[in-house]
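Follow-up to my post from last week.
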Amino acid sequence: MKKMTPFKELISYEEALKRILISAKPINRTELVPIGKALNRVLAEDVIANMSVPPFDRAAMDGYAVKAEETFDASSSKSKALELVEVLHAGALSNTILSKGECIQVATGSPIPKGADAVVMVEYTEKNGDIVNVFKPVYPGANISPKGEDIEEGKVVLKVGEQLLPARIGALAALGKKEVKVYEKPQIAVVPTGTEIQEVGYPLEKGQIYDVNSYTLSSIISENAATPIKCKTVPDTTHELRNTVKKLLKYDIIIFSGGSSVGERDLLINVIQELGTVIFHGIQIKPGKPTLFALVDGKLVFGMPGYPTSCLLNAYLLLIPAIRQMARLQLKVEKNVNAKLAQRVVSSTGRTQFLPVKLKENLACPVFKQSGAITSMSEADGYIILPINTDVVEKNQEVTVFLFD
Amino acid sequence: MKKMTPFKELISYEEALKRILISAKPINRTELVPIGKALNRVLAEDVIANMSVPPFDRAAMDGYAVKAEETFDASSSKSKALELVEVLHAGALSNTILSKGECIQVATGSPIPKGADAVVMVEYTEKNGDIVNVFKPVYPGANISPKGEDIEEGKVVLKVGEQLLPARIGALAALGKKEVKVYEKPQIAVVPTGTEIQEVGYPLEKGQIYDVNSYTLSSIISENAATPIKCKTVPDTTHELRNTVKKLLKYDIIIFSGGSSVGERDLLINVIQELGTVIFHGIQIKPGKPTLFALVDGKLVFGMPGYPTSCLLNAYLLLIPAIRQMARLQLKVEKNVNAKLAQRVVSSTGRTQFLPVKLKENLACPVFKQSGAITSMSEADGYIILPINTDVVEKNQEVTVFLFD
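User reply:
Got it. Predicted complex:
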């Protein structure tokens, strides 16, 4: 029997995050995607207007296109009579050139007919047969959206690095763009390790448990603008782990779950040391102490604890920031609320503790059972942080709850 | 020429939202989806544990399975020697029944062998060949996660109506569930109206503009857990509009954009009045006054303004709450920040104004050009609200910015 290897050097949570963010380089690969599928993607190029929007002078109001100077004398007591020579719909074009004494009815969005330089709102007119009486003067340009008012041809409309929120998708549509160049999403391989792991939907053999971590990890990867690649369970042997790492180096991140504790079968660290560089192994946090982080051929490799709560909480704390930085998204704005602690909590010594809690009105109720329990997380609304030097937090003390949702 | 119909009765924003939420009934249709695709969906049934998790007593630590009573005399100065009779990995089963004077090496997650009732952590032992010296007593049950500790068979694990956040997907996986019953997503038909609308990717004819609203509406529909169905542009004729409404009544919501202003071709309201009930037409808000809301055969019909900023802002204000209520999701927690207004703003009288602003450090800079300009929205980070009775908001006044993201 070989010696079990204990952790050598535990680092702080802050140091772990710092080392991860130094390694998580933004992705430079780009792809063209249809604008209908580009929501929330990150622009890989400046978008320069290839046309003006609107592409022509158009009516900004329902009313009548006129020569402005003909209305200068109009007033509520003394109207100006104009002959209605045509009726235009929003998409309709007119070949008529407006002459003196004439007007053309326009709808919001109608191209302005030649010869007209203003629109009188319908509210300030009265129509009798073919005669329109105008009761208010308009200045030249009134109620007209000139060509390029929204977007001027040749101008930069959207900048590289901007996230395509709904209105920005709209700006691309306004320019008639069918596709847009965006940065590729980080591709993240998720690998469960250990022969005791069974896939959902199959019966459990004696001693087996179902694969939880692939599902929780894939979920938060999808939620953070990256693509999870769910891989088959890999047995804990040096040979299989080595082959798996090599095969998955085509992805941006490889995450193993299980196989990074101090048990004798924890061979991942040996394989990594052979193929690349271990950046850290062991963090002063609870849960999630055994987390491993390494670089192999410039790719990020995480060895996550096998325990579901440790694995998922570590992913929130360490993986999401890495993914978002690689995806060129802003680090997530933490949503948090203040609450009173529902019961006294005794902290383990020497580690920063992340304690899952459920919110009941203004109370933060600890729901942590143990690191192996998925219900520690599925019943939680968020977590509170007990700093490294905390022994006890008393009941009713005010705490900050960081929300998962 | 027919008479243009002005708005009859404008209602307040609050009243409009209230009427919409009364009509937006939560969807009762359900479907089975694979758990890997169920993220953020809403449970349509209580999930009852069909098994215990863990499914067997298992080691919570790396160490040695022992009979606890044999360690009661052990101390750091006087160890208890036990014979190592087997080595177990996490997934491995043992047929050995532990006898007096024996121990079995276990890894975190190993099933506890018969005859053992505790695990001594490896840190409190020393191994010499086949002899393990134990330096600390353990109580019965120590370092064992008993069967059902996480989830007890027969208990309700997740409740109907809960949203499937990542950890809850994990709880389903822990139970081996392949599929889960969730409520269907609202299906929302998005229909541009007007012959002046061109699809992106095609050249513009004279007088045409590109379809912007289908893209912005589909984007925010997708973001709010519903399914957009992008429909072909419908010409503004009574016949076509009537056929379109009838054909799309299979969906939960029909949204027309364009065709609800006061122009003579605004025939949608006539068609709706013929087929169903207009709930309101016209809101005291800027932009977005002409919005129409109706019920036809119990289905919600929105007539959104054609102008991109009016349409999208109205969708944020009125459509998203309707969708989320139908999808049984919590109404969105508004993200907002306080800022100082960068310039004096004069409000239009008599309407609640929603003014798009860009944040520059602590300044809220108005970016509204006009309701027709998509860049009014694509350059904005959020909006401020100028209440109905506001005339002027002075420069440097503190305002609340409601964020789009």
